[in-house]
Amino acid sequence: TDVTSSKEDVEQDLLRILSYQAESAITQGNNQEAVVYIQRCKEILLRLPKDTAFLSLLCYNFGVDMYHLRKFEDSAFWLSQSYDIGKMNAKYAPGSEVLAKVLRLLATVYLEWDCQRFQDKALNAVSLANKECVSAFGLYLKIRILLTSGASDNHIRAGLNEMLESEASLEVCLNTVKLLMAEDREVLAFEYLKRMCQHFESSPDLGTALVLHIELLLQRGKELLGKQKIEDIITGHYTGKQLTPQALTTLHVMLWDKAANHFETSNYSEALQWYNYSLSFFKAGQMEPNLAKLQRNRASCFLQLKQLEKAKEAIKEAERCDPDCIFTQFSVYKIAVQENNMEKGTCKTLYFHFVGVCVCVCVLVCVLVTAWNLALQCESSPDRMRDFFVLSYQLSQLCPPDRTLLMGQRTCLLMAAAASLELCRKSPHSTQTEELTQALEHIQICWEIWKTLKASGSFPADPTDSLLLLYEFEARAKLNDPKVETIVESVLELENVEAKVLETIAALAMEPPAHFPLLCKKALRVALSLHKKQPQPDLAHCSKCVHSLIKLSLPSGVSEVEAHVLEEVWDYYEEALSIIASAPDDFAVMETLWLLTRAWNTGILLYSLAQYPEAEKWCGLAMSFVRHLGTLQESYETQMSGLYSEILDRLDKEKRNRNMEE
User: Where is the domain boundary, 281, 314, 348?
Assistant: First the structure.
C-alpha cells in the first residue's frame, strides 16, 4: 500500500510538472513540445482520473490562445483534446456547460478555417455542443455553418425551428434574419421574420423586428407591402403599441430616404406620401428641429405639385418649430414671390439679392454636408473617411462662426483623429508614425475649439474631454511619448470619470506597439474602485479588471516570481474572493476555475523552487475557490483535497528534515 501510494504521489507531481511545462512551451511558441507533454499527461490521467477537468481546461486555454493567433489547425487540435479528455471520465469531467463551450469554439474554428472543407466536422461539433448544453449562440452558430456550407432550405428551416423552440432572445433572432438575407436566403428570412414577430408579439421590443421587416421589404423593392406594414405601425402607435425611441428613429431615417429618392426622380406625390408617413408619428404642437425640416421638405413637394396653400401651411409649421432657420426663410420668400406678395417679397431686386446670398450659403453648406456624408459612407476606408472629415472642417472655416458651427468642427476633427488612429492600427509599423502625428494635429486643434465652446456655456454629460484624452493617449502611447503619464492624470481629474474610460486606457496601454504595464495596472485599479462604488456593482466588469491585473502581474510560463509581485497578486486574489462572496451565484464558473488554476500553478511553481511556506499559502488560496465552482465543486474538491494534503505532508517532512539538519 505504501509503495502504491508513493507511486501515485510521484505520478501526481509528474502530471503537474508536465502540465506546467506544456503551458510554458505554448507561451514560448513551441506547440509540438507542448503536445508531447500533454500526451504524457493523458497517459498518467488513465491512472489518476481526478485531474480530468484540470487537464481538459488546460487544453481549452491552449485552443483559445491558438484561435486568437489565427492558428486554426493548432487550435482545432487543442480543443479536440480538451473535449476528448473531458469525456474520458464522466465523474471528474468539467461539466456539460464547459464541454459545450469547448465544442462551440471548435465549430467556430472549423467555420473560419475552411467551412467547405470542414463542414461535416463543424456541424458535428456544434450539434454535439447543443446536445451537451443547448444555447442561443450554439443554435445561431449552427445556422451560420449551414449557410456557409450551402445547406438546403429544409435543413436551415429545421435549425430555425430549433432556435424559436429554445426561447432564444429577440436580438439573436434578428441577427439570424440579417444573416439569412446576407446569404441570399430571402424566402427563409421573410418566413422566419413573420414567425418571429408572432412569437414575440407581446415583447416591448417587437417594434425593432417590425422596422427590420419594413427595411428588408423596401430593400427588395416591395414598396406596397412595406407601406402596409408602415400603416399598421402607425395604427399601433395610436393604440398603445408605440415603437421604442431607437426603432422609431430608424424608421424615420428610412422614410426620409425613400422620400428623398422619389423627389430626386421628380415623383413628388410619392415623395410626399413617404414624408407624410413620417409626420404621422409627430404629436400636434410638437417643437423639434427635425419637424421643421420635415415640413420644409413637404412644402417643397407641394410647391412642385402647384399646391400653394398646402405649401404655406407646411412652411407655417416649419416657422413655428424653427423660425430663425435660413432655409425656412428662403422657403417663405419663394412662396411670397409665387403669390406676387410684395410685402413679403419686398421687391424683386431684394429678393434676387437674397436668393444670391442664399444660393452661395446653400452651395457651401451642400458641399460641406456632402463631404460629411461621404465621410460617413467610407467606414471601411479610414483614409478616405479622414480626408473627407478634414475637408468638411476646412469648408466650415469659410462659414460665419457660431456655436453650432464650432460643434460641427469639433465633431469633424474628432472623427478625423479617430480615422487616423484606425488607419494606424491597420498600417505596418514603419508607416504608423505619420498617421499618429496627423492624429495628434487634429486632436490639438480640436482641444482649442473645445475650450472655446466650453467658455460659451456648459455641456453636461458631454464625452468630448474623455474622447480627446483617449485619442491623445493612444497616439502618444504608440509613439512611446512619456507624456502619456500626464494624460492619465488628466483622465483621473475628470469630473465623474467613467470606469469604461479607464478600462479603455488600460487596453490601449498594452496595445502594440505601446507597452505601459504600470499605467495599465493603475487605470485598472481605479476602474475597479469605481465599479465597486456603484450602488449595484457590475460583477462582470469587476471580475474582468481583477483578471487583467492578475494576468499582467503574474504572466503564465514564468520560471520564477519575486516576493513583491506575489504580495501584489495576493491582494488581487483577495479582491476576487470578496467579489465572489458578494454575489456567488452571479460569478462565472469559468472565471473561478481560471483563478483557481492560476493560484494552484503558482503554488506548484513555488514548490518546485523549494519555497515551501509560500507554496502552501498559494495552494491553500486555490483551495478557497473550490466551494464556488457550482456543479464542478465535487469533482475538484475530491481531486484537489488529496493533492493539497500530499503537499502539506511533504512540507511537514521538509520542515522536519530541516530541523534535524539544524
Answer: 281
| Residue 450 grid cell | 473645445
- Which of 114-118, 125-129, 327-331 holds the top average pLDDT? 125-129
Domains contained in the chain, number: 2
Look up residue 248 and give its three cell numbers: 422609431
pLDDT over threshold 80, residue 659: no
User: What contacts 532, CB < 8 A, 6 or more positions away?
Assistant: 542
* Average pLDDT value for the chain: 83
Dihedral sign computed on CA atoms, order 32, 37, 39, 40 = positive
pLDDT at 622 over 70: yes
Confidence of residue 350 (pLDDT cuts 50, 70, 90): very low
> For residue 579, is it within any domain?
yes
Distance CA 586, CA 205 (A): 26
Cis, peptide link before residue 463, omega less than 30° from 0: no
Nearest to residue 543, comparing CAs of 497, 580, 489, 502? Answer: 580
More confident residue, 332 or 14: 14
Please report, as a single letter, which amino acid is at residue 320.
R
- Element (H or E) spanning 591, and its range? helix 589-608
Output phi, psi for 90, to 5 deg. -60, -35
Q: What phi and psi values does residue 285 have, to the nearest 5 degrees? A: 80, 5
Whether 138 and 129 have beta carbons less than 8 Å apart is answered as yes
Q: Which domain holds residue 545?
A: 541-662
* Secondary structure string (H, E, C) spanning 486-513: HHHHHHHCCCCCCHHHHHHHHHHHCCCC
- 606 within some domain: yes
